[in-house]
Protein backbone atom coordinates (compact mmCIF):
# COMPACT_ATOMS: atom_id res chain seq x y z
CA UNK A 1 0.00 0.00 0.00
CA UNK A 2 1.43 3.37 -1.02
CA UNK A 3 1.01 6.67 0.77
CA UNK A 4 -1.52 7.77 -1.84
CA UNK A 5 -3.69 4.73 -1.12
CA UNK A 6 -5.86 4.40 1.97
CA UNK A 7 -6.87 1.08 3.51
CA UNK A 8 -10.02 -0.64 2.28
CA UNK A 9 -12.13 1.21 4.85
CA UNK A 10 -13.97 4.37 3.70
CA UNK A 11 -11.59 7.29 3.09
CA UNK A 12 -13.03 10.16 5.04
CA UNK A 13 -11.85 12.20 7.94
CA UNK A 14 -13.35 11.26 11.29
CA UNK A 15 -13.61 13.80 14.03
CA UNK A 16 -12.25 12.41 17.32
CA UNK A 17 -15.18 11.93 19.68
CA UNK A 18 -13.26 11.00 22.85
CA UNK A 19 -10.31 12.43 24.74
CA UNK A 20 -8.10 9.59 23.54
CA UNK A 21 -8.97 10.45 19.94
CA UNK A 22 -8.14 14.13 20.48
CA UNK A 23 -4.83 13.18 22.06
CA UNK A 24 -3.99 10.90 19.14
CA UNK A 25 -4.74 13.65 16.63
CA UNK A 26 -2.50 16.04 18.56
CA UNK A 27 0.28 13.44 18.53
CA UNK A 28 -0.12 13.08 14.77
CA UNK A 29 0.06 16.84 14.22
CA UNK A 30 3.08 17.13 16.51
CA UNK A 31 4.79 14.37 14.54
CA UNK A 32 4.02 16.08 11.24
CA UNK A 33 5.49 19.33 12.59
CA UNK A 34 8.69 17.62 13.73
CA UNK A 35 9.19 15.88 10.41
CA UNK A 36 8.54 19.07 8.46
CA UNK A 37 11.22 20.91 10.42
CA UNK A 38 13.67 18.03 10.39
CA UNK A 39 13.30 16.77 6.82
CA UNK A 40 11.17 19.27 4.90
CA UNK A 41 7.60 19.13 3.67
CA UNK A 42 8.51 17.23 0.48
CA UNK A 43 9.71 14.29 2.56
CA UNK A 44 6.39 13.90 4.39
CA UNK A 45 4.52 10.65 3.83
CA UNK A 46 1.62 9.08 5.65
CA UNK A 47 3.80 6.14 6.69
CA UNK A 48 6.50 8.51 7.93
CA UNK A 49 4.01 10.54 9.96
CA UNK A 50 2.49 7.38 11.48
CA UNK A 51 5.92 6.08 12.45
CA UNK A 52 6.98 9.40 13.99
CA UNK A 53 3.68 9.60 15.91
CA UNK A 54 4.05 6.04 17.20
CA UNK A 55 0.72 5.00 15.76
CA UNK A 56 -0.43 2.58 13.08
CA UNK A 57 -1.07 3.64 9.49
CA UNK A 58 -4.66 2.47 9.92
CA UNK A 59 -5.11 4.76 12.91
CA UNK A 60 -3.70 7.66 10.90
CA UNK A 61 -6.13 7.02 8.04
CA UNK A 62 -8.92 6.82 10.60
CA UNK A 63 -8.58 10.58 11.08
CA UNK A 64 -6.99 11.86 7.86
CA UNK A 65 -7.44 10.94 4.20
CA UNK A 66 -3.94 11.99 3.14
CA UNK A 67 -0.98 14.13 4.17
CA UNK A 68 -2.63 17.25 2.74
CA UNK A 69 -5.40 16.85 5.32
CA UNK A 70 -2.80 16.44 8.07
CA UNK A 71 -1.08 19.64 6.92
CA UNK A 72 -4.39 21.49 6.72
CA UNK A 73 -5.24 20.42 10.27
CA UNK A 74 -1.81 21.54 11.44
CA UNK A 75 -2.39 24.90 9.77
CA UNK A 76 -5.77 25.27 11.43
CA UNK A 77 -4.18 24.52 14.80
CA UNK A 78 -1.72 27.37 14.25
CA UNK A 79 -4.45 29.76 13.14
CA UNK A 80 -6.61 28.91 16.16
CA UNK A 81 -3.69 29.43 18.55
CA UNK A 82 -2.71 32.76 17.00
CA UNK A 83 -6.35 33.82 16.90
CA UNK A 84 -6.62 33.19 20.63
CA UNK A 85 -3.58 35.39 21.24
CA UNK A 86 -5.09 38.09 19.04
CA UNK A 87 -8.42 37.91 20.87
CA UNK A 88 -6.67 38.48 24.19
CA UNK A 89 -5.38 41.80 22.84
CA UNK A 90 -8.98 42.99 22.63
CA UNK A 91 -9.23 42.71 26.41
CA UNK A 92 -6.64 45.47 26.93
CA UNK A 93 -8.38 48.72 27.84
CA UNK A 94 -8.00 51.77 25.52
CA UNK A 95 -6.50 53.83 28.33
CA UNK A 96 -3.83 51.18 28.81
CA UNK A 97 -2.83 51.30 25.13
CA UNK A 98 -2.64 55.09 25.32
CA UNK A 99 -0.54 55.01 28.47
CA UNK A 100 1.99 52.48 27.22
CA UNK A 101 5.40 53.61 26.06
CA UNK A 102 6.12 52.80 22.43
CA UNK A 103 8.28 49.84 23.45
CA UNK A 104 5.60 48.49 25.79
CA UNK A 105 3.00 48.87 23.05
CA UNK A 106 5.04 46.68 20.73
CA UNK A 107 5.78 44.26 23.57
CA UNK A 108 2.10 43.68 24.27
CA UNK A 109 0.84 44.00 20.70
CA UNK A 110 3.28 41.84 18.78
CA UNK A 111 5.68 39.93 21.04
CA UNK A 112 3.20 37.18 22.09
CA UNK A 113 2.59 36.41 18.41
CA UNK A 114 6.31 36.39 17.64
CA UNK A 115 7.05 34.15 20.62
CA UNK A 116 4.51 31.65 19.31
CA UNK A 117 6.12 31.67 15.88
CA UNK A 118 9.60 31.21 17.37
CA UNK A 119 8.46 28.25 19.47
CA UNK A 120 6.74 26.60 16.50
CA UNK A 121 9.32 26.46 13.71
CA UNK A 122 7.03 24.41 11.48
CA UNK A 123 4.88 27.54 11.17
CA UNK A 124 7.78 29.22 9.34
CA UNK A 125 7.81 26.35 6.85
CA UNK A 126 4.08 26.79 6.29
CA UNK A 127 4.35 30.50 5.49
CA UNK A 128 7.41 30.15 3.26
CA UNK A 129 6.88 31.06 -0.43
CA UNK A 130 7.64 27.51 -1.56
CA UNK A 131 5.01 25.89 0.65
CA UNK A 132 1.83 24.93 -1.16
CA UNK A 133 0.47 21.69 0.29
CA UNK A 134 -2.02 22.50 3.03
CA UNK A 135 -1.30 26.20 2.61
CA UNK A 136 -2.25 28.22 5.66
CA UNK A 137 -5.55 29.97 5.13
CA UNK A 138 -5.28 32.82 7.59
CA UNK A 139 -7.25 35.60 5.93
CA UNK A 140 -9.62 35.96 8.91
CA UNK A 141 -6.66 36.17 11.29
CA UNK A 142 -5.00 38.82 9.13
CA UNK A 143 -8.18 40.87 9.09
CA UNK A 144 -8.50 40.55 12.86
CA UNK A 145 -4.90 41.63 13.44
CA UNK A 146 -5.19 44.55 11.04
CA UNK A 147 -8.29 45.76 12.87
CA UNK A 148 -6.51 45.49 16.23
CA UNK A 149 -3.44 47.33 14.93
CA UNK A 150 -5.66 50.03 13.40
CA UNK A 151 -7.46 50.38 16.74
CA UNK A 152 -4.19 50.84 18.61
CA UNK A 153 -2.82 53.31 16.05
CA UNK A 154 -5.98 55.44 16.27
CA UNK A 155 -5.75 55.47 20.06
CA UNK A 156 -2.12 56.55 20.05
CA UNK A 157 -2.38 58.95 17.07
CA UNK A 158 -5.84 60.51 17.45
CA UNK A 159 -5.49 62.80 14.43
CA UNK A 160 -4.54 60.05 11.99
CA UNK A 161 -6.72 59.76 8.87
CA UNK A 162 -8.59 56.54 8.15
CA UNK A 163 -6.49 55.94 5.04
CA UNK A 164 -3.14 56.42 6.78
CA UNK A 165 -4.30 54.35 9.75
CA UNK A 166 -4.86 51.45 7.37
CA UNK A 167 -1.47 52.03 5.75
CA UNK A 168 0.23 51.97 9.15
CA UNK A 169 -1.63 48.80 10.22
CA UNK A 170 -0.67 46.98 7.02
CA UNK A 171 2.97 48.02 7.47
CA UNK A 172 2.94 46.80 11.08
CA UNK A 173 1.74 43.42 9.85
CA UNK A 174 4.23 43.27 7.01
CA UNK A 175 7.39 44.17 8.94
CA UNK A 176 7.46 41.15 11.28
CA UNK A 177 6.05 38.88 8.55
CA UNK A 178 9.02 39.73 6.32
CA UNK A 179 11.52 39.08 9.09
CA UNK A 180 9.82 35.79 9.94
CA UNK A 181 10.27 34.69 6.33
CA UNK A 182 13.91 35.75 6.52
CA UNK A 183 14.24 33.68 9.70
CA UNK A 184 13.13 30.61 7.76
CA UNK A 185 16.11 31.10 5.43
CA UNK A 186 18.57 31.88 8.24
CA UNK A 187 18.06 29.20 10.86
CA UNK A 188 21.35 29.94 12.64
CA UNK A 189 19.99 33.25 13.92
CA UNK A 190 16.27 32.61 13.56
CA UNK A 191 15.43 33.54 17.15
CA UNK A 192 17.33 36.83 16.96
CA UNK A 193 15.43 37.87 13.84
CA UNK A 194 12.05 36.99 15.31
CA UNK A 195 12.39 38.02 18.96
CA UNK A 196 14.92 40.86 18.71
CA UNK A 197 14.98 42.46 15.28
CA UNK A 198 11.26 42.29 14.49
CA UNK A 199 10.27 44.12 17.72
CA UNK A 200 13.17 46.58 17.23
CA UNK A 201 11.95 47.39 13.71
CA UNK A 202 8.37 47.86 14.94
CA UNK A 203 9.39 50.10 17.83
CA UNK A 204 11.35 52.32 15.44
CA UNK A 205 8.44 52.40 12.98
CA UNK A 206 5.82 53.16 15.62
CA UNK A 207 8.01 55.89 17.14
CA UNK A 208 8.37 57.48 13.69
CA UNK A 209 4.65 57.54 12.88
CA UNK A 210 3.74 58.73 16.39
CA UNK A 211 6.23 61.58 16.09
CA UNK A 212 4.88 62.46 12.68
CA UNK A 213 1.32 62.42 13.96
CA UNK A 214 2.04 64.41 17.13
From TrEMBL:
Cross-referenced InterPro entries: Homeodomain-like_sf, HTH-type_TetR-like_transc_reg, HTH_TetR
Domain HTH tetR-type, first and last residues per copy: 22-82
Sequence intervals crossing the membrane: none
Keyword Zinc: no
A UniProt-annotated Pfam family: TetR_N
Keyword Transcription regulation carried by entry: yes
Gene3D superfamilies: Tetracycline Repressor, domain 2
Region (Disordered): 1-20
Domain of life: Bacteria
DNA-binding residue intervals: 45-64
Gene Ontology terms, MF aspect: DNA-binding transcription factor activity; transcription cis-regulatory region binding
UniProt keyword annotations, A-Z: DNA-binding, Transcription, Transcription regulation
Protein name according to UniProt: TetR/AcrR family transcriptional regulator
